[in-house]
Amino acid sequence: MDLMPLETVVARGVPVRCLMRGQGPRNVVLMPGWGSNPWVYQCFLEAAPPDRYRVVAVDLFGESGRPWGGYNVSGFADEVRDLMDALDMRSAAVGGHSLGGVAALLFAQRFLDRLDALVLIGTGPTTKHHGTLPAMLAQLEARGKDRASIEGLVGGSYGTLPPPDVFRRYIDHAMKAPIEGLIEAMSSAFQYDFVPLLRYITAPTLIVHGRYDAGRLMYHAEALKSGIPNSRLAVFECAHYIMEELPEAFNATVLAFLAELA
To answer: Are 95 and 30 in contact (CB under 8 A)?
Structure first.
């Protein structure tokens, strides 16, 4: 599998690395989870009709510069706004996977007027009942940027790993991030409990979840569905990385959702 090349956009003075495809009138901005791997969205970028969509997948902290707000959920949410400004995007459908989904929820709270729709993938409004995050953070703090440790932290959330050469390049990318960024990004998820605020998200929302996700449980997806008024939930028979484990089904579901917004 050939990985798409990253491009650089300078957003409020910060170099942000992105995958970009399409010149259509509908904007889509996607954030990865911890590990900051934008290539998890490559199959979606390739599937989205380029004459209808302009899709950007953001590298939050692998090769990108430090966000103004730091390597944390708040900094990432603001950076997406800055990136949209730099790309002349008045509004966009904003999506996020796992940690990126927490940043997407914060974006929805802060910049609702810039939000056409919200796509929440393998994430939740709180870290309550998160099965693995505390242990992951403790391991990261204890072992630092040890390659075997990073491989375990990233790979442990897959039901089926990507091909070995692809996974190796994913880890190569994650290893470029500063250790303080890796720790701050993961620990920042603990700071937020959006459950009482979900009712204020009025944008159409698609929640995508893997039934066998061992970290972000079905509890988290159901909390999003019950809290966000204009939302729907799609459950797939896979683990955490839905967009890679079941790419065709994921792409079809998300594109059908976005088509309804026209």
So the answer is: yes
148 Cβ contact list (under 8 Å, min separation 6) = none
For residue 65, the number of C-alpha atoms closer than 13 Å in the C-beta half-sphere is 15
Number of domains, the chain: 1
pLDDT at 35: 81
Task: Return d(Cα 52, Cα 161) in angstroms, integer.
Answer: 31
pLDDT of residue 137: 79
Rounded CA gap, 30 and 84, in Å? 11
CA distance 58 to 7: 10
Mean pLDDT, the chain, integer: 93
3-state secondary structure 52-80: CEEEEEEECCCCCCCCCCCCCHHHHHHHH
Quickly state the pLDDT bin for 237 (edges 50, 70, 90): very high
Structure tokens at 38: 């934008």
Q: Answer whether residue 2 is part of any domain.
A: no
Q: CA–CA distance from 58 to each of 77, 116, 144, 215 (Å)? A: 11, 18, 24, 23
Residue 111 within any structural domain of the chain: yes
* 1 assigned to some structural domain: no
Do 9 and 83 contact (CB within 8 A), yes or no? yes
CATH number at residue 24: 3.40.50.1820
Q: For the chain, what is the total number of helices (H) and then of strands (E)?
A: 10, 8
pLDDT of amino acid 131: 67
Please tell me the pTM assigned to this model: 0.95
Look at the block and give the residue holding tokens 């484990």.
245
| Host domain of residue 128 | 7-259
Dump pLDDT digits (tens) for 169-178.
999 999 999 9
